[in-house]
Amino acid sequence: MSDDLLLSAQNLTRYYHGRKVLHGVDLELKRGEVLGFLGPNGAGKSTTMKLLSGNLGAHDGVVRICGHDMADAPLLAKRHIGYLPEVPPLYLEATVDEYLKFCARLRKLNARDCVCAIAKAKRECDLEDVGSRLIGNLSKGFKQRVGIAQALLHEPAVVILDEPTNGLDPNQIRAVREMIRGLSKQHAIILSSHILSEVQTLCSRVAILHHGRIVFNADLGAPSSAISLHLGVVVDPAVLEKIAGVESAVALEDGRYLLHVDNYDRAVEAVCRSAIEHNWALQEIRRDASILENVFVELTCNDAILES
Amino acid sequence: MIGVIAKREAIALFRTPLAWALLAMTQFVLAYQFLAQIEIYLQFEDKLRSMPDAPGITEVVVTPTIGTAAMLMLFVIPVLTMSSISGERRNGTLALLYSSPVKCADIIVGKFFGVCFLLSLVWAVVALMPLSLMWGAPLDLGTYACGTGALALLMMTYAAIGVMFSTLFTQPAVAAVMSFGLLGALWLIDWATRLGQDAGLFAYLSSLNHFQRLAGGLVNSADLSYFVALSIAALAVSTWRLNGDLKPL
């Protein structure tokens, strides 16, 4: 096993009350990777994350964290995990400092490391001013950040975050994204989210789960290879397809077109030139960022794909 | 690790008004009973003095107070322990324990010791009251030690059973009702024998029988092992239940 393979899950299967909710999920995660975990509600995302974090046992399959089998050596495997569940696991009657100290002790940090780790986590999650406040009195955003802080406290190799930006305001969302980006250099991160743009900007790879199966698992290489075009006149898509670099063109409503291109920069130039030549009254041309959305909708709305 | 969990549990219990209310209520009821027993003793003091083998102040005041304390614990301990695991389950904080490198047995024993710490304070105020009699009366320290020791054993066993039901049920109130039901049944189960029927097993299962023998000064290994075995069994079931989440096969 390669040193950089921090998490591997094979054939994860789980039943709930006799119903199979995970059908042999396979996942691998290397150091430096951020895996975006997508799927409609009820697809099994949280269940998978619980299995990966050792919160639930799999009926079949193996989870290995840094080479340690979660079923055979759970204590070794769990040392390398930081987990933020959907609902942050907070003791509302404790202060932030007390809570983080408890978490650090649970992760077997010694007294001196505890102090350093807590100070670092508080700095990273911007919690320095609320250390002595009761968690129950904090706003939702702060609670979420305390939850993230506890997951990062012991510098785990694998960080599993179930909807980490849930309940945060736009500034906090940006701060958390920055934090995740910073973490990705040293750690392997799995992140579930409903916000596709978030996954697109943060993650190096995306896995889409549908009905308990991984239906898509690929690198997000080139960010986008589609152009959204708005013209003042009606043009036959076939004409657009003849432009150099345009692979296909689809007419949408109100003079809008979606063009799939092989090279974005070259294609934009060619489309603009054609628009001026043919007097198409070009109103807008931009990169279409909805590729992931299209993939997601296509895979999760169309059950026929599963049957194939 | 057990210590870390026990400390947090004890602090958490003190952060809620529930623990304080229970402590205050227990203390109030027992102090009242204690004073009432002293009053009774003072009324019959002369008569008792003239009787051969008459019960002393320890038998008249201390033993009944400890008996009342034991009965009060039937109600108090299920309420104290009801959310020890089920509360964590409901609040989602069990995920923190599960994803940390901690054994399920450590979680359970930690929780148990946390509750025991609070109960030791309840026990201490009960145990300290009779000592105040030493200013003016000869206290039978042997009987006193047996009574308070039996109470400590009983409270420990109740705590273990309370923690067990808290792992078995998600709703704290249900856990409290179920532990109260079991503790009450064990307390009363011997009533059949008192009606004259032969019920050896019932007599053995009765926590009242074991408690009364120990509290009365008859220390024997059968009674001691009853409480210890019951506690260990309850904690083992709790650990088994927590492990069940992590190993579904």
Jot down its keywords.
heterodimer, A: 308 residues, alpha/beta, Rossmann fold, Alpha-Beta Plaits, 2 domains, 6-stranded mixed β-sheet, elongated, disordered C terminus, B: 249 residues, mainly alpha
How is this structure best described in words?
The complex is a heterodimer of chains A (308) and B (249). Chain A is an alpha/beta fold and 308 residues long. Chain A folds into 2 domains: 5-219, Rossmann fold (3-Layer(aba) Sandwich), CATH 3.40.50; 226-288, Alpha-Beta Plaits (2-Layer Sandwich), CATH 3.30.70. Chain A has 11 helices and 14 strands. The model of chain A is unreliable at 304-308 (pLDDT under 50). Helix content of chain B is 81%, strand content 0%.
Characterize the quaternary organization of these chains.
heterodimer
Distance between the termini of chain B: 27 Å
Largest sheet of chain A: 6 strands, mixed
**Mean pLDDT over the residues of chain B:** 89
Tally of strands of chain A = 14
- Main sheet properties of chain B: none
Radius of gyration of chain A: 23 Å
Q: Outline of chain A, from the CA principal axes? A: elongated
Number of separate helices of chain B: 12
- CATH class of the largest domain in chain A, named Alpha Beta
Could you state the CATH homologous superfamily of the largest domain in chain A?
P-loop containing nucleotide triphosphate hydrolases
Break the fold down into its secondary structure elements and pairings.
The complex is a heterodimer of chains A (308) and B (249).
Chain A: E1 5-16, E2 19-30, E3 34-38, H1 45-52, E4 60-65, E5 68-69, H2 74-78, E6 81-84, H3 96-106, H4 111-124, H5 140-152, E7 158-162, H6 170-183, E8 188-192, H7 196-202, E9 205-210, E10 213-219, E11 226-231, H8 237-241, E12 246-251, E13 256-261, H9 264-277, E14 282-287, H10 291-301, H11 304-307
Parallel strand pairs in A: 3-8, 3-9, 6-7, 7-8
Antiparallel strand pairs in A: 1-2, 1-4, 4-5, 9-10, 11-13, 11-14, 12-13
Helix pairs in contact in A: 3-4, 4-5
Chain B: H1 2-15, H2 17-50, H3 57-81, H4 86-91, H5 94-98, H6 104-131, H7 141-168, H8 172-188, H9 191-194, H10 200-205, H11 207-215, H12 221-246
Helix pairs in contact in B: 1-6, 2-3, 2-6, 3-6, 3-7, 3-8, 6-7, 6-12, 7-8, 7-11, 7-12, 11-12
